[in-house]
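**User:** Hello, beginner here. Are you able to go through the protein record under this note? It all follows right here:
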Amino acid sequence: MLTRLYIKNFAIIQELEIQFKNGLVIITGETGAGKSILMGALGLALGERADASQIKDKDLKSIIEAEFAIKSNKELKEFYQQNDLDWEENVVIRRELMTNGKSRAFINDTPFPLSQIQELTSMLVDLHQQFDTLELSNKHFQRLILDARSNCLDELASYQKVYHRYKDIEKEIISLQENLKRAAQEKEYKEFLLAELDDLNWQENEENTIAEELNLLTHAEQIKQSVGTAAYILNEGEKPLVAEIKSIISTLQPIVKYHSGLEELLSRLMSTQVELKDLGSELSAIADRVSTDEKRLDQLNARQSFAQRLVKKHGLQSANELLPLQQSLSNSLSSFQVDQSNLEKLQNQLADHEKEAMVIANKLHQKRSKQIPLLESDVKELLSRVGMPNAQLKIGMSQIGLSLFGIDNIEFLFDANKSGKFEPLHKVASGGELSRLMLVLKSLVAQSLEMPTLIFDEIDSGISGEAAKQVGILMDELSKGHQLISITHQPQIAAKADQHLFVFKTESNGSVTTNIKTLTKEERVQAIAQMLSGENPSENALANAKEMLKG
């Protein structure tokens, strides 16, 4: 609820502070006293655009503060969390208008953009001014009225959980389909690239192995000749080296016993002979194994050439990088198959959620359909009570595809004069009619909705007598569970107030200033009597005022 409004240096208000009570708060005063200025100041606190011309003293800034006592609910909690605000049971919204035309906005002394001020205050105040048809003409609000009356808000919340999951899956499917479309366009080319790599069948470290084998085959004749010559010198030839060593050993053996140093040398020569003999055998074996193989040489050159062509084609540094590329292409094509499988699963899930959503949406449709004639009838009855006996509300409902609020498109249509022609509200209803229609609708759903502070600016336009009395009764009923603030010129409405605020002007040093005060019981009698019969009320008017206050 709104607990305090502070205004300084705004229009013809020098400085004033209003303390608001709960229940029905009525604001009265003479025409031109400044009631609309109060609403303008409050509108600024709620986030409306500022105008530097509204500053009273051009050398000073204007300040408007609105303080609210708040209760924890989901929307408010989310706003506080999203904006890093500490939760408190009171919140102060402050606007400052600078002389240069700029303005600043604060939530509990923390600067905030105007858009966030508007977001917060929309949860705290419902300000309905003359000719303000935006909310009542808003289809979301119209549907909310019908749903609250149909007692299906909990069912709608359940539906929206299913619907949100349905939309999430739908987004996943669209994204996956786009990926698959791109993948399908690349699939054939990737398959071709992978087929080339599969044909090559490159092995790990094969680049080095081929280089070694090519080097051997290219120089095979030279290797065979040189190795053969070395083996011949060791084991054959005119003077085989192994035989010569053996001869030396035979020469030294008889004299070893005569010289102690020869025994070790003879042992070494014998070892050398054995080693040279083994070397000769191995060299001969190598010479036998090495051969020129033109066919194998051509095969290796072709394989190396194929590998290098693929290296160049894919912009790689070496043939060893072909293996990771081959694996990547294989994974990509496998992923395509997996994505296709996932797409089928998601499509099945989408169908399941669509069925579930449709079941709940049809239940919502049935509840709404059942409630429409009842709501139309109740609205007609209340409109008649508040001075609109010829007015009638018609609720149109047509079916659409699944949406956030079900399968129903809901529109309120209005006929103010029994013309039989129903049209959208903003086309056919006057400001006063819309205000009363809004009061009627909100009174019908007040127990079902958690509504913020309701503010009506001159809801009594164009009515008097019994109609004004009925408006007052409705406002009184509505204020039992909600704070309701209203500017009025009707004594029947003013008499229902839990708090009666009186706006008046004073003049000092040639300057006119707006002030406001809370009326006592005696002052209320006088004020209501003046509303009945003029500035100097008669005894009858005073008696009538007392009677109204008793009622």
